[in-house]
Design a protein that fits this description.
InterPro entries: Ald_Fedxn_OxRdtase_N (IPR013983), OxRdtase_Ald_Fedxn_C (IPR001203), W-dependent_AOR (IPR051919). Pfam families: AFOR_C (PF01314), AFOR_N (PF02730). This is Aldehyde ferredoxin oxidoreductase N-terminal domain-containing protein. The protein is of the alpha+beta class. It has 3 domains: 240 residues, 4-Layer Sandwich (Aldehyde Ferredoxin Oxidoreductase,  A, domain 1); 212 residues, Aldehyde Ferredoxin Oxidoreductase Protein, subunit A, domain 2 (Orthogonal Bundle), CATH 1.10.569; 189 residues, Aldehyde Ferredoxin Oxidoreductase Protein, subunit A, domain 3 (Orthogonal Bundle). It contains 29 helices and 17 strands. The chain has a 7-stranded mixed sheet with strand order 1-9-8-13-10-11-12. It has a 6-stranded mixed sheet with strand order 3-2-7-4-5-6, with helices on both faces. β2 and β3 form a beta hairpin. It starts with a helix and ends with a helix.
């Protein structure tokens, strides 16, 4: 079916024409608003206040969401929104990692705002089509496709005539339909979900980019928080944007030479150093699988352990040598020489509705290998790739799936659930077939898969109420917080990383702060004050990427040769200067390192207040499961007995020679929970928050986030 046939077989529900306009200093100065309940399309101005206080990307998403919902809004209410926004640097082609967009919504898992970053071509092409953001509200009565033609200046809402829902099929079909030729496919980008997004709370969004070398439509994911579930609840089958004419100066920067200079410098670093450092161009983020195992940080058997004797079977070298296509340029946006978007080509599927087909699998990323692999006790690289593929095409967040499956497996092995409850699935650790069948059930909306797809938070409640499970034990081993499943790092021995998970806005995702090596391995932040400073700076710095439309990886997955000699090597100061240069070069601002952090503080504190407005965001919501702090079971304690015994002796002066394991575990737990509370106090103080976790009026005024509606919320909690 081509585009003309698509039009002939579908109903045009609404069309809209607009003047193409011109991007100035990174901004189009307008947002495309669509209300699906009313089939309404309109242009909304981007104000100077928005650019000053919210910058773009995640900031714009949160601001539109704040104004679109009420404190009573649930994720499946029509007023909930999905906002996709790039940022003023999104789309530049001279500096690696500038193709990111941010997606915001009220999460089906947490009930509060979720943001998820994603690569692919959609964000940049949306901007070049004339829009700083796409804001979608309401619900359609029938499945629809939204099509934006950025060269003609048209937007259409079309009733979908297509049967496909799964991402690898639908993305390919729509790319074919809307492209005029093979060459034109690079000018088309598609956003889809998948069948499992309709039946679970952990649905993701797939963003396409066309790979002309493989002649395949590939996928990148906005994975966290269930935004794909919102997407399908709104009856959106797909979003499509088409724009022809990408070139290096479309953002109309103030000074392109500054951007060129910074880009050339980083390209040379990547070319010279990547193979010596992280091998991103060979394997992407999966380069750290064996590193995490070496340092006891690779989550294994539902975060009980930090490594396994079989990790060598899923080491990065295995994927490099046997599965991931080498010697082929990769990258999910033009100009990114880091090229970490790896793929396994012509992989034959062994299960499910696509059994026997040869497919291209994007991955595995580290999180996929750890979550789908070691955390579930699966050390089979082909099983990990198959799980990875089906998570993507069904639109299931691989992190949530891995963590919730590991939780289910531990519950199964502890007799909390059994074969009768699971419908015959033998969910022991390492049972690949059971894990795959659980995933296929999520796609079909059947069996135990539909229960598991509600997430760890809701399963804990169900297992207590229906099966008489011990609620305290489930709280300890259920690796979720605020309703969001943990990402795949073992934080037991890093207090700072415990805070990096627990003291986040959206839930335990490492994109705010990854401090394990600074804290546990290198001992660079020994005091509470040091940790609090790190838990201020790094979440703010990393927030900045999401405001401007940038990827984090070029910041610290390649570092200058002289970095170790700098004053603050963990911050990669030379790269920070690069970001300041490209920001000022595009926008005409004159920010420095201090103002960079201040820009993020405004949005970060706004999101905290947004959480409070929605019923979370206080100290009690920052509690974490004990397994993220220490050993829950005797088995865990015994696996590290020497370490724990030494800590009790050296830190607490406790004589362990005659005590039972249970007593030692109790003393250790009291100490570690106390440490977390003290860390929380220190972090709140550094962030300008009260002891309850509420930003103070004085702090909001100081950082310039003293909007009347924001102050109104916090005053009710002070």
């Amino acid at each position: 079916m081509d585009l003309n046939t698509l039009r002939e077989n579908s109903i045009l529900l609404k069309d809209f024409s607009y003047n193409l306009g011109k991007i100035e200093n990174g901004y189009t100065n307008r947002t495309l608003y669509i209300n699906l309940s009313e089939n309404k399309i309109e242009s909304k101005p981007v104000t100077q206040m928005m650019k000053d206080k919210f910058i773009g990307g995640k900031g714009f998403g949160l601001w539109y969401l704040w104004n679109g919902v009420t404190p009573e809004t649930k994720w499946n209410d029509p007023e909930n929104e999905i906002i996709i926004a790039g940022g003023p640097l999104c789309g530049i082609t001279q500096y690696p990692g500038a193709g990111k967009s941010l997606v915001c919504s009220i999460s089906p898992l947490t009930g509060i705002p979720i943001d998820s970053n994603v690569g692919g071509y959609f964000g940049p092409l949306l901007k070049f089509s004339g829009w700083d953001a796409l804001e979608i509200q309401g619900k359609s009565k029938k499945d629809i496709i939204v099509y934006i033609d950025g060269n003609k200046g048209t937007v259409e809402i079309i009733e979908s005539p297509l049967d496909a829902i799964d991402a690898h099929v639908l993305g390919e079909q729509l790319t074919e339909m809307f492209a005029d030729s093979e060459e034109d496919k690079r000018n088309v980008a598609v956003v889809t979900a998948g069948t499992a997004a309709e039946n679970t709370r952990i649905g993701l969004l797939n963003f396409t980019f066309y790979d002309p070398r493989r002649q395949a439509t590939r996928l990148k994911q906005a994975g966290r928080g269930g935004i794909g579930t919102v997407f399908r609840d709104k009856r959106i089958r797909a979003l499509v944007v088409k724009f022809k004419g990408v070139k290096g100066d479309l953002n109309n920067p103030v000074d392109k030479s500054i951007i060129n200079k910074a880009g050339v410098k980083l390209h040379k670093e990547i070319c010279r150093l990547d193979d010596k450092q992280n091998k991103m161009r060979k394997i992407g983020t999966a380069n750290i699988i064996e590193v995490m195992d070496k340092y006891d940080l690779l989550p294994t058997h539902n975060f009980k352990f930090g490594g396994h004797s079989d990790t060598y079977k899923i080491a990065s070298t295995v994927f490099i040598e046997k599965y991931i296509t080498q010697g082929m340029a990769d990258g999910c946006w033009y100009g990114c020489s880091m090229a970490c978007a790896k793929a396994a080509d012509k992989f034959e599927l062994k299960t499910g509705p696509y059994k026997g087909q040869l497919v291209t699998i994007d991955g595995p990323e580290y999180e996929n290998a750890a979550g789908l692999g070691s955390n579930c006790g699966i050390f089979d690289p082909e099983a990990i790739l198959e799980l990875n593929f089906y998570c993507d095409t069904y639109a299931v967040d691989t992190i949530s799936f891995g963590t919730l499956t590991a939780f289910v497996m531990e519950c199964y092995e502890n007799g909390i659930i059994n074969k009768e409850i699971t419908g015959g699935l033998e969910l022991n650790f390492g049972n690949t077939n059971a894990a795959l069948e659980l995933l296929h059930q999520m796609s079909r909306g059947e069996g135990f898969g539909k229960i598991a797809g509600q997430g760890v938070h809701r399963m804990k409640k169900l297992f207590v109420e229906e099966y008489g499970a011990d609620s305290n034990f489930l709280f300890d081993i259920g690796m979720e917080q605020k309703g969001l499943e943990y990402s795949e790092y073992l934080s037991k021995e890093s207090l700072a990383q415990q805070g990096g998970y627990g003291l986040t806005n959206k839930g335990p995702q490492h994109d705010e702060a990854w401090l394990i090596f600074m804290d546990m391995v290198n001992n660079q932040i020994p005091t509470f004050e040091d940790k609090a400073e790190a838990l201020h700076y790094f979440p703010m710095f990393r927030t900045w990427f999401g405001l401007y439309g940038l990827c984090k990886l070029p910041w610290n997955d390649i570092v200058p040769e002289s970095n170790a000699l700098s004053d603050e090597p963990a911050k990669i100061p030379e790269h920070v200067e690069n970001y300041i240069d490209i920001c000022n070069g595009v926008t005409g601002k004159n920010i420095n390192k201090t103002e960079m952090i201040r820009e993020s503080e405004r949005v970060y504190n706004f999101q905290r207040v947004f959480n409070i407005r929605m019923g979370k965001g206080l100290r009690e919501n920052d509690r974490v499961p004990y397994r993220s702090m220490g050993p829950v079971t005797k088995e865990e304690y015994i696996s590290r007995a020497e370490r724990y015994d030494n800590q009790l002796k050296e830190l607490l002066g406790y004589d362990v020679t005659r005590e039972s394991i249970e007593k030692k575990m109790k003393i250790l737990r009291e100490h570690r929970e106390d440490q977390y509370e003290k860390l929380t106090d220190a972090v709140y103080k550094r962030r300008g928050w009260t002891n309850k976790g509420v930003p103070t009026v004085e702090h909001l005024e100081e950082i310039g986030m003293d909007l009347p509606e924001v102050l109104e919320v916090v005053k009710g909690y002070l």
